[in-house]
Amino acid sequence: MPNRRFADGEVVMGRWPGSVLYYEVQVTNYDDVTHLYTVKYKDGTELALKESDIKSQSSFKHRKSQSSSSSPSRRSTSRSRSRSPGRPAKGRRRSSSQSREHKEDKKKIIQETNLALLVLFCLLKPSENNTRRYNGEPDSTERNDTSSKILEQKLKPDLEIERVLDQYSLRPREEEKKKEEIYSEKKVFEMIKTTEKVSSKTKELEFGGRFGTFVLIFFLPATVFYLLLMCEQDDPSLMNFPPPMPALESLWEARVFGVFLLWFFLQALFYLLPIGKVVEGLPLSNGTKLQYRINGFYAFVLTAAIIGILLYFQFELHYLYEHFLQFAVSAAVFSMGLSIYLYIRSLKAPEEDLAPGGNSGYLVYDFFTGHELNPRIGSFDLKYFCELRPGLIGWVVINLVMLLAEMKIHNQSMPSLSMILVNSFQLLYVVDALWNEEAVLTTMDITHDGFGFMLAFGDLVWVPFVYSLQAFYLVGHPTAISWPAAAAIIILNGIGYYIFRSANSQKNSFRRNPADPKLAYLKFIPTATGKGLLVTGWWGFVRHPNYLGDIIMALAWSLPCGFNHVLPYFYVIYFICLLVHREARDEHHCKKKYGLAWERYCQRVPYRIFPYIY
């Protein structure tokens, strides 16, 4: 195999993908497998380039010196003549040979510039319609085709394009002075979408890499079962470790698994109903947009109606409480089977359908993080369905079952105030998520993360069985709270919810339509990608205000359980750790995506989640 030509840290000239322009870049890395150089432009943008797209600075200086030394006397004479208004016409005092050379040079420059314009026009043409739609302008495909033909006929070069590209760098001299301005233009960055594909292998591994993800595949289910077993103990103190283990044969029951499958496919049926609007998600790497039906709230209403009918006919929902651990095992087994299916089908998926963060080439890591970005069976999007339906709605149903179980076990005519608060707070959270279902399309779960064990287990097991931990705890450990304490907790949850909802609404509205007059009061930092970074409103207060609201609400959900044990506050501790990890991942992703603009944003907004603390 040939040795690498350029060393790390070396400053060279790199060709901008899809164009014929070269810019000064610094080599930061070299991949021995793909033989691609990772280079960094002056604005902070990092791209992977082939060795053929990189040239040494000396070769460009050599060309420049040749061009500038070809006829200095002629240029100096021309400049001196232009300063004398009393001179006769220039053509009369110039020899025929000089005139011919001048015309040839002028023709040569015009051909270079025209050809560069033609190449840039062809590169920008595929995304022109999308840009017009973004700006609210009508499509103009027919006019584009006509103007393209006219331009091609007018600017048709005498030489073949490949030979001209090899002969000239096509770097207009005026561009040398304004090359920094190019980086801030949105259309230049759109050229990346129409250029040759480079390797999309995941280089930076999260969650401890291959070893960490292997451990998490077993650690996460073990954590769920440990929490549920501890809640069943009379004294759920952390000092009583390990809790008594039930017999293995008691953990599995075919009837319970059948009920879980019935629940899953009932929600799938609601998802397929032709009710609710159909919207487009954010553009994928190939420029296409997937369509999603927004009917999660309708599914919730239909589920509530079915539960109401079951209660009216006195159907025994206490069965879920009595077999709660078996339901958790059934959900874990199903999520594992679903993850295996997702990984096997992802092996046949095209490269452009793979997840940016789950394409490392390592089986365990890709299995855990998700190899395919948006696995679909026809129009049925598996990841999007699991994100909000079976687990999130199931969380509310489990809370209701725990409320009824508390009343039955303790012979109460009404549920306790603590149980009412927990159910009400978490019901508000779920209804809000389903009512604002479209907002989930802009989250990293949908746009960046693949669908593998991490999301499958999280959506189907962790969310319904861990997020309902407070309600499950209160059944076996009733806690009485006063009305003033309840009022204070309600205010705390209201503050957290207000921050969470208003921050997310600002972000989602701005992402959908930055030109909305309703958002005129928001200020932002423009980036080279064409997107803006908000520096006013909640996003000018801290970098992740939605995470701040989440943590405040999580605390309010746990306070009704009292302070006798730490177990109900596991959710708060977990949530803080999860959001700090997500925040660190978001920081890394945004710094790589937005470059210098993100550094300016961080200087403007120094606090990440907690103001004046972190």
Automatic annotation (TrEMBL):
<keyword id="KW-0444">Lipid biosynthesis</keyword>
<dbReference type="GO" id="GO:0050613">
    <property type="term" value="F:Delta14-sterol reductase activity"/>
</dbReference>
<dbReference type="GO" id="GO:0006695">
    <property type="term" value="P:cholesterol biosynthetic process"/>
</dbReference>
<dbReference type="GO" id="GO:0005637">
    <property type="term" value="C:nuclear inner membrane"/>
</dbReference>
<keyword id="KW-0597">Phosphoprotein</keyword>
<keyword id="KW-0238">DNA-binding</keyword>
<feature type="transmembrane region" description="Helical">
    <location>
        <begin position="521"/>
        <end position="542"/>
    </location>
</feature>
<feature type="transmembrane region" description="Helical">
    <location>
        <begin position="455"/>
        <end position="475"/>
    </location>
</feature>
<keyword id="KW-1207">Sterol metabolism</keyword>
<keyword id="KW-1133">Transmembrane helix</keyword>
<keyword id="KW-0472">Membrane</keyword>
<feature type="compositionally biased region" description="Low complexity">
    <location>
        <begin position="66"/>
        <end position="75"/>
    </location>
</feature>
<dbReference type="Pfam" id="PF01222">
    <property type="entry name" value="ERG4_ERG24"/>
</dbReference>
<feature type="transmembrane region" description="Helical">
    <location>
        <begin position="481"/>
        <end position="500"/>
    </location>
</feature>
<dbReference type="GO" id="GO:0003677">
    <property type="term" value="F:DNA binding"/>
</dbReference>
<keyword id="KW-0963">Cytoplasm</keyword>
<feature type="transmembrane region" description="Helical">
    <location>
        <begin position="211"/>
        <end position="230"/>
    </location>
</feature>
<dbReference type="GO" id="GO:0005789">
    <property type="term" value="C:endoplasmic reticulum membrane"/>
</dbReference>
<dbReference type="InterPro" id="IPR018083">
    <property type="entry name" value="Sterol_reductase_CS"/>
</dbReference>
<dbReference type="InterPro" id="IPR001171">
    <property type="entry name" value="ERG24_DHCR-like"/>
</dbReference>
<keyword id="KW-0560">Oxidoreductase</keyword>
<keyword id="KW-0675">Receptor</keyword>
<feature type="compositionally biased region" description="Basic residues">
    <location>
        <begin position="76"/>
        <end position="95"/>
    </location>
</feature>
<feature type="transmembrane region" description="Helical">
    <location>
        <begin position="294"/>
        <end position="313"/>
    </location>
</feature>
<dbReference type="Pfam" id="PF09465">
    <property type="entry name" value="LBR_tudor"/>
</dbReference>
<feature type="transmembrane region" description="Helical">
    <location>
        <begin position="562"/>
        <end position="581"/>
    </location>
</feature>
<dbReference type="InterPro" id="IPR019023">
    <property type="entry name" value="Lamin-B_rcpt_of_tudor"/>
</dbReference>
<keyword id="KW-0256">Endoplasmic reticulum</keyword>
<keyword id="KW-0539">Nucleus</keyword>
<dbReference type="InterPro" id="IPR002999">
    <property type="entry name" value="Tudor"/>
</dbReference>
<keyword id="KW-0756">Sterol biosynthesis</keyword>
<keyword id="KW-0753">Steroid metabolism</keyword>
<feature type="domain" description="Tudor">
    <location>
        <begin position="4"/>
        <end position="62"/>
    </location>
</feature>
<keyword id="KW-0752">Steroid biosynthesis</keyword>
<keyword id="KW-0153">Cholesterol metabolism</keyword>
<protein>
    <recommendedName>
        <fullName>Delta(14)-sterol reductase LBR</fullName>
        <ecNumber>1.3.1.70</ecNumber>
    </recommendedName>
</protein>
<feature type="region of interest" description="Disordered">
    <location>
        <begin position="53"/>
        <end position="107"/>
    </location>
</feature>
<feature type="transmembrane region" description="Helical">
    <location>
        <begin position="250"/>
        <end position="273"/>
    </location>
</feature>
<feature type="transmembrane region" description="Helical">
    <location>
        <begin position="325"/>
        <end position="344"/>
    </location>
</feature>
<keyword id="KW-0812">Transmembrane</keyword>
<keyword id="KW-0152">Cholesterol biosynthesis</keyword>
<feature type="region of interest" description="Disordered">
    <location>
        <begin position="130"/>
        <end position="150"/>
    </location>
</feature>
